Structure formats: C-alpha cells, structure tokens
Amino acid sequence: MAFSGFKTKILTQKIEQLLKAKNKSNSLQIAKNIKTVGIIVNEGSDFDFEMLKKLQKQIASGSKNFSVLTYKTTTESYNEFRGVVVNEKDFSWNGTLKSKEVKDFLEKSFDMLIDYTKSTTVLSKYLVVKSKAKFKVGFANIDKRMYNFMIAADKDINLFNKELIKYLGILKKL
Q1: Strands 37-42 and 149-151, how do they pair?
Q2: Which run of H or E residues covers position 38?
Q3: What is the CATH number of the domain that holds 107?
Q4: How far apart are CA 5 and CA 109, in angstroms?
Q5: Which domain range does residue 147 map to?
Q6: Is 91 helix (H, G, I), strand (E, B) or coil?
C-alpha cells in the first residue's frame, strides 16, 4: 500500500507511541486455552485461505471464534473467509481509522492474534500493534516489539502453522 508521506509519518508515530505504552505495561495475559483467534493477512500475497480452515480444526476453536482481517489495495474480489477488509481508504488524512468493522476487530480481546502478513509496512504494523489481543504471534525477523511469540519459519506459512501448533501444545494452550 502506498500511503501518502503524511499518513505514513503519522501512523509511524502512533505505532511508536503504542509500542512504548506496551513496553511500560509489559503484561502478558495468555488465556488458559486458546478459544478466540484473530488473524491478519495481506491479500496481496499468495495466501491460502483454505489453510485457515485446517488451522481452525487443529486449534478447535470453531468458526464463530475465528476472525480474519484482510488488508488489500483493492476491494473487488470476495471470499467468505476473508472477513473484515481494510485498505488505505479506511484511514483519514491524519491516520485515524474510519471503518467501524476494523475498529471492532482491533478492539476485540482475542486470546491469540496471528499475523501472517510477513511484511513491515506501516499498515500491517499498525494493525498488529493496535490490536487488543492478549497473545500476539508473528514471523521472526519482523519487529520483535510487536509480538509476544515469534516463529522463525523463513516466511513459510505451512511450517509456521506446524510450529505454532507444536508450541501451543507444549504451552498447554490447546
């Protein structure tokens, strides 16, 4: 996404403020068992939405407890599993989020948020940092301040999911 320079600067400042506030509170609140899962994906990538159905079965949370936020540059295609869609137009000139659906997604206190974006764009960072999820998981080598748990899977989603399930099992969160 190509934000204007002004929007990018404002969102970058908001991200830094949110990360500083997170570091001050520094409290991790992992639920006993993962029941609600939020997922952020970038439709611009070659993301396999069918893979999410497999992940649902492994986590056993059910579709009603599994929410997806997809960000993309256009709004033309539709897939029932894409959930809430966000794009650059959902942000005002001063970086304020306008979409109620996206705000609701970010305000929901998921037991776990999985970030599949594999990128360091301003929008993807903002969405992850702004989320009220209790436990945030993402790819290693992105920005370690954003996540509670990172998986080094060299941007391979299948390996990422395999490792995620393995470690959730070890932590007795499934």
Answers
A1: unpaired
A2: strand 37-42
A3: 3.40.50
A4: 31
A5: 5-170
A6: strand
